Amino acid sequence: MDFKPAHKSSKFYFVVSIIALLLLIFTTFMAYLQVKQMQKAAEMVSRSLHVYNGISNLTAHYTQADSEELRDELLKPDKSSFAFDNYREEGRVIMDSLNGLVRDNPPQTKRLQDMQLLLNDLYKQLQDLDETDYEIDSTISQYREAQKSIISITLFQIRTIKNEMLVEEQKLMLKRQNSYDSSKSLAPIILLFLALFALLVFVLSFFRIYKNKLQIRQSENFLKSVLATTDNVVNYYTPIFDEEGAIIDFRIEFANACNRDYFGVEPDFMIGKTVLFIFPYLKDSVDFEKMKSSYLNNDKVKFESEFTANDSKMWFQSFITPLSGGILVTARNITHEEEAKSMQLRLRKRLESQNLQLLDGRALLANIFKSISHIVMHFKSVRNEEGKIIDFKILFVNDRITPITGHNPEEIKNKNVSEVYPDIFTSEVIGNLVDAIENKKPVTYNFPFNRNGNSHWFSATAIKLGDGVTITVRETTAEIDKANELLKLNEQLVIRNSILTDAESIAKIGSFSWYIESNTTEISDNFYRMLGHEPGEFESNLESFRNFVHPDDLELYDKKGEISIQGLVSDEFMYRVITKNGEIKFLNTNGQFIDKNGSKVMIGVVQDVTQTISDAEELRRSNLDLQQSNLELESFNRVASHDLQEPLRKIQLFISRIEDVDGAAFSEKGTTYFDKVKKAALRMQGLIQNLLAYSRIDSSKTDLDHIDLNDVLDKVQEDLATTINDTQAEITSENLPQIKGVFFQMEQLFANLIGNALKYKSNTEAPIIQLQSEKVAASELPDKSLGKSKFYYKITCTDNGIGFDSKYSDKIFEVFQRLHQKTEYSGTGIGLAICRKIVENHNGYIYATGKLGAGAQFVIFLPTK
């Protein structure tokens, strides 16, 4: 194959010639500019000289008025008036000449304007002096002397302006002279420099062109050398057509030495032969079709092929490129790469085996996260250019965060802490996290969190992991509240609670792996510490651990172990152990079976719940005390309500009898008083009945039924039909949900809400009551700490009544609290308190909003079924 020079056109030389021509034009243009600049400088110097001459003529002109002899000569009575007119005309010509010379100099122009005014004054003063009688008496002599003094003052002012103009022109003359001298000296130097520069460019261009020609020759030789020494097969083929114009073969026009190395064929022998003659196995192959396709479609083609030579298998990666009526085939030996892929496949299988082990660890970690009640988070450091930590990126958060802040872990993952929890940057929390990373040691700290106006306290431990920090958080609000309460009772209890709070700052959890076939175990370092030992202090197996189990719980422990082995299932159970120092602890065990390398392995966690058991026992005793108090309160309510209603019924009976017997004899005032007594008795009866209804709402009721709230609403509307018709009220509702609850309590809830809306209706329009329902997440609860269910039904009751001020939104739910006088609206002040108690009895939440004169809105959250 004949490789021709790469630069066949004269494009490069044309570009160089254009550059040289442009430089020549640039040199000529710069010379022209330099001559023009020198001419301009000479003109400015000439103008300054003309200005000097004009000022000299002006000086000579006004000097005639300064000399008394010349002035008398000019103003002699026997002289013709033409002398003075010629004198004034001479001054005008001088001033016009000066104005033309300094027209581009505003300061000088201004001075000439002032000079013209003074000259006009001078001419007038000379005329006034000429008109006085020459025969002088004493009065006329004094006037002429005064007039001469005025002329002298005018001449002094003219001289002052003339001197200022001379000073200004001297500065301009110096500046213009310097500019002219500079242009005069630089012009030949610049012209010579530009000429030499142009010559240098031509010389450099010539040598550059000559050097490029040598480089092209060297490149050709280098290309031939590369083709002879490259490890790639480089062949050039031209197509062979049949009578119908179809490609039937390719003729080999060029072949490098690699054909001999890989295929055992001499390049000189190949040239002139056909491809199918040298490589007969390509006939009817996909590779041959790709060669034809590349030529016909003028496209580059890339493919890989396998070839066997000298009983060894080789792989080649071929590149086909259309080139000058043929195709250039470049084949790269990728045998080593294929062998590397095979090795990579073996490594991948090994990696998959390691991934299985990693999955076991992840399963254990997931089980730990599910079994603990702590919040676990991992943040990655975000640093600035100086390496200072300015933020953190959230990489992991477990599900325990949702009830606390309402955030979904998946939604906040990969977000910055400053975006999700900006408050920590104004507290000491951020400093503790940075200290844990920079000082490489765990940091334990406490911090508050405000939720719906209530302050909750949390304890956190931050541990460095890589360039980030892992934080374990648990709520200590109850502990702190209990510690504050016990502080008032006894100093010793305060110390004990303080020690307990510090001891529980880190979760007491251990992990284990039980290999069923070998009956061996592996336990974590913290598991050793929970048993009172240092890590590795005793041999880890079932028998050694069984020695720690409390004798009274051995039977349960053995039974659970047998069930786990027989059914390969594990249930969560709790037992006691006796530690090395004799301490009895309650351990809660939970695990699951997995397949590990074909063997069954139980992995699980053990949690020290000793403190939890103790707290539960204390809570049980407190619940017993509370139940006893509730029973006593309920008994008191029944007795009190019965004892109150008995005399009330007698009062109402005698009121009725008095009205029947003596009602007609009452005076007008007596009738008024008697009506007030009747209303007071009725109000008392309503209070007792509502109080009984309030006390009978049992929050411990567990016999909940499936209730369709649409049926409840229909029942309430039927009971209130008379009031609804009288007020022409309009009640609309969407499809209300079905819940689990107590029917009569739901009926009372809706009756109280709708009854209130009818009672406190607007005086100008008929009542409109709307009930809407939607399913929402627990995060929308105003008080997220009350969220015991993931989803709630949000039921909104809206009316167009008289409304109320929103600052009383909490007061209206209290017993006996009213926002209006009893003379304005009837009622006992217990209805909304009953509503709140019913909602709370159903593990829900209720709140109200309103605006005076614009209606009220009651929002109820009830847990889904």
Automatic annotation (TrEMBL):
InterPro entries: HATPase_C_sf, HATPase_dom, His_kinase_dom, HisK_dim/P_dom, HisK_dim/P_sf, PAS, PAS-like_dom_sf, PAS_fold_3
Single Gene Ontology MF annotation: phosphorelay sensor kinase activity
EC number, as in UniProt: 2.7.13.3
Catalytic activity line of the entry: ATP + protein L-histidine = ADP + protein N-phospho-L-histidine
CDD domains: HisKA (cd00082), PAS (cd00130)
A UniProt-annotated Pfam family: PAS_9
Transmembrane region(s): 12-33, 186-210
Superkingdom, natural source: Bacteria
Keywords, comma-separated and alphabetical: Kinase, Membrane, Phosphoprotein, Transferase, Transmembrane, Transmembrane helix
Residue ranges of domain Histidine kinase in the record: 639-865
Family annotation (PANTHER family): PAC DOMAIN-CONTAINING PROTEIN (PTHR43304:SF1), PHYTOCHROME-LIKE PROTEIN CPH1 (PTHR43304)
Protein name (database record): histidine kinase
Organism annotation: Bizionia myxarmorum
